[in-house]
Design goal:
Elements lengths: L4 E10 L7 H10 L6 H13 L8 E2 L3 E2 L6 E11 L1
Antiparallel strand pairs: 1-4, 2-3
Length: 83
Amino acid sequence: MVKTVKVAQYVKVTIDESKFDETFMKEFQENFYNFTSIDDHIEHLAQLYARGLYDNGDFIEGYGNTKDMGIKFNIECQENEII
């Protein structure tokens, strides 16, 4: 048997906005992705967390230690549906 399951997660991402200053944004763009807003970072961080790649307290390349950047994750809810 093979079934496809749709899994939707709602991830709450908290960051310390002061860490995402002009210097950080420029360095991140030069070395990683051309993100132009904090929302770009929040979306990226949420999908990394949702995919199970990082957790609270982890080191994330480009960001450093999540605690140092004020980054926190929390799954608000998850919905599963066989389609």
